[in-house]
Amino acid sequence: MDDPRYKTLAYYERLVLQIKREVVQGVRVPGDKLPSVRDMAKAVQLNPNTVAKAYKQLEAQGVIEVQPGRGTFIGAQTAATAEEKQRVRPAFEAAVVSAKAAGVTLNELQAWLNAQFEEGQA
Amino acid sequence: MKLTAQHLTKTIGEKKVLSQVEFSWQTGEIVGLVGRNGAGKTTLMRTLVDQYHADHGQVAIDDQDLTAVPEARQQLIYIDPTEVFFARLTLAKLGRLYALGYPTFDQARYRSLLADNDLVLAQRYGELSKGYQALVVMALNLASAVPLILLDEPFDGLDLFIREMIVKAVIDEVADGQRGFLIASHDLAELDGLADRVLFLKRGTISKTVTLEAVRDEAAKLQLVFPAMQIPAAVRQYGQILNVQGRVITALFSPYTAAVEAALTAEQPVLIEKLPLSLSDLFRSEYAEEVHHD
User: Fold this and answer.
1) Going by C-beta distance under 8 Å and a sequence separation of 6 or more, which residues neighbour residue B86?
2) Beta-bridge partners for B206
3) Which residue of A has its CA nearest to B194?
4) TM segments (chain A) (predicted)?
């Protein structure tokens, strides 16, 4: 939750990103059980409704799976659906436009992209 | 369960402390109550439980007017931390006393909450440190098993660990939707992630209600620098200036839409950067006009 890059986002979005990042880094692996909304809320000291909203978004995006009566689990990491890819594309395009407007070169952008990708795989 | 306050007005002496206060609050919700010193937060809490009789207006729980149906007040608890009548009582006696007022009071839970914090039933409330007194107040609130709980400055003067214990207790109680909290606090950082909504009390009335996650989604706090020394009209038109330091302008844009972004970009800013938006920023923007600069 403390990643400075996420500090301008709503708390539920920060939690979504944090969990995605933990999945990418292998801190949480498919099949891992996530804490209940109540326990996660206590752990990160956030309003339970905020945590529930984050879980709902993660579920809608296929990152986590709710198994009724058993709990919430990290989903099997299948390749992202075409739909999911379409969803993230506008944000990426907007970032590229802003970067170009700010005078960032293609080489610089590529370096950023590489660094960002490697972060998750280290 | 839902509490609704309508047109609440209270004059103390010559001063109209509350004027036409209206809000609602329900179980499953954590609602923050903020305002400057003397804005009327404690008076509002005392009026909600009829410790002060309102001059006008009404408080209802699920459409039961508390004046007409006083027993409905057993759904609501307020322990006034600054005016406790029970300083000389032992914690055991305190539990028996609250059980008289609240038929739902759970003695076993009260004892276990005290034991969790190494508190002994034979101790007198007034002999405890401030932190332990806060924990006893919380234990009474929780053991009463009341749906709607009012907390007045629950974090005031407490160390990090006791604050965390209280925050976790609030989260735990509210998580299954059976309880709700109304929390008056000057600790904006503590309320920031905790509250669903925050009521701003200003000159005795609720001047603004903010749903925090929605604001964080829609609004933006920006740091801006423009080539000209003058602040462009677009900044004042769409935003609220929080601070100006030389050429660096900090402003709040709510909502921050694509149109607002385009209007700002059209002024060719040298710098346009998003900053974290906190409850403190909203507080500053709401009360800025009340602060007199010399």
Assistant:
1) B94, B97, B125
2) B201
3) A47
4) none
Phi first, then psi: give them for residue B40, nearest 5 degrees: 115, 15
- What amino acid occupies position B129? S
Block residue for tokens 């729980």: B61
Query: Chain A contacts of B196, Cβ < 8 Å?
Result: 47, 49
Q: What are the tokens at A4? A: 């400075």
pLDDT at B102: 95
Backbone angles phi, psi at B183, to 5 degrees: -120, 110
Residue A3 belongs to some domain of the structure = no
Give yes or no: residues A66 and A41 share one domain.
Answer: yes
Residue ending a domain, among A36, A55, A74, is: A74
How many domains does chain A divide into? 2
Average pLDDT over residues B81-107: 92
CATH number (domain holding residue A46): 1.10.10.10
Q: Could you list the residue range(s) of the whole structural domain that residue A69 is in?
A: 11-74
* Binary contact (B175, A8; C-beta < 8 A): no
Cβ pair A8:B167 closer than 8 A? no
State whether A19 and A59 are in the same domain.
Answer: yes
A34-80, pLDDT tens digit by residue?
999 999 999 999 999 999 999 999 999 889 999 998 999 999 865 56
**ipTM reported for the complex surpasses 0.90:** no
